[in-house]
Amino acid sequence: MKRIGICVIGALMAASGAALATSTTIGTATYMGSEYNLIWDDDNNGNSLVWLDYSAPPAHWPDQMAWAAGLEAQLTYNLDPGCTVTWSDTSWRLPDAGSSPLYGFQAATQELGHLYYDELGFTGGSSNGGATAPDLASSVFENLALSAYWTSTVDDIDYGFFVVEAAWMFAFMETRSTPYNDTVYGFQDIDARGTGMFSPQHRGLAVRSGEVVTSPQGPMIPEPMTMLAVACGLAGLGAYTRRDRRMA
Questions:
Q1: In 3D, which of 106, 135, 120 has the Cα closest to residue 41?
Q2: pLDDT tens per residue across span 28-56
Q3: DSSP state of 96
Q4: What count of Cα atoms within 13 Å lies in the side-chain half-sphere of residue 62?
Q5: Which of 64, 97, 163, 189 could cross-link with 153 by S-S, CB 3.0 to 4.6 Å?
Q6: What residues does each domain of the chain span?
């Protein structure tokens, strides 16, 4: 009986696992003639966010800010049946790094860090300490890149005799030169946000705050592995019941 109970419990857990996921594809958006997933993150530091699963090519910070802000006029939404979104932001934007960004390997209060560490479950660190690249293919996203992404958060650096206009970025992966000579993963840093020849260029990832409501349209269709697990549990329970009747 114990083995049957364990099998049934495992089947129920497998069946409910997909429903407990906090990052869910809610449809697509057509951008430049191609379809990109809209991914709902229902709890990012207490906020409901929708990510556009498209990585803009590396560019200077002002260009990425303008790209994200101008997306709304270029997107055609194709939401899943029964899904509605009420936007809180007036337009798409680059992710926010929070009110007190911190340097290093941490999620802190910033949206990209929370996505990397808490939602996608990746680990951070330096290649000098044995850290390896996250498996992006295992995530709900299809177009994330092992690269650094700009945030919208500015934080100028005052050196006394001059001020560097800077913005925070978050690196899924970045290679550092002397004195580190390593590759870092899940790393938050600050970079100059100018447009000059020596200013860095990072990728852009667009996000938008909004409340999402979903209502099932017809019966839910479980994933194949979930169906297999449930079948295992029910078959085992049936076999135990028949055996119990024969012994009565």
A1: 120
A2: 999 999 999 999 999 888 899 999 999 99
A3: P
A4: 7
A5: 97
A6: 23-224
